[in-house]
Design brief:
137 residues; mainly alpha; 3-stranded mixed β-sheet; elongated
């Protein structure tokens, strides 16, 4: 349990760093902001589309590790059934835990990306430019 929590926190930091890199190293911000004098308009739909063009999502599991997980989990399911005298759910629970961890990491990265694009970025732009930022969508 603690390992999963630590992994999710670590993955949130990786996702945050990746999103910040895309925002700072690409022309993303310049393409999605419309400066209209006293206010800055930030169109979220156009922003997300533009962000997707520039962003390269990091993979939660390296390709080699993915092959190991996808190969060993079903093998463990079969072997535990064949080698045990009792019918149990240990193999199924392990398989679900192993297969759901990348999904949990995907949700963490989506949460971080949405927070940065829809909350943190407009707040930062407002502080930098000294103008109100209107988020439209």
């Amino acid at each position: 349990m603690i390992g999963g929590i630590v992994l999710n926190i670590f993955w949130a930091a990786i996702a945050y760093r990746s999103v910040r890199h895309t925002i700072e190293a690409t022309p993303f911000v310049g393409n999605v902001l419309d400066d209209r004098g006293e206010v800055v308009i930030y169109d979220v739909q156009r922003g997300v589309t533009e962000f997707e063009r520039h962003h390269k999502e990091p993979s939660a599991i390296p390709k080699f590790g993915r092959h190991i997980v996808f190969g060993l989990a079903p093998l463990y399911l079969i072997l535990s059934r064949l080698l045990s005298s009792s019918f149990g759910a240990n193999g199924v629970l392990l398989f679900l835990a192993v297969m759901s961890m990348p999904l949990a990491l995907l949700f963490v990265s989506l949460l971080v990306r949405n927070y940065v694009l829809m909350v943190a970025l407009p707040t930062r732009i407002e502080k930098e430019r000294g103008k109100r930022v209107l988020v439209t969508g």
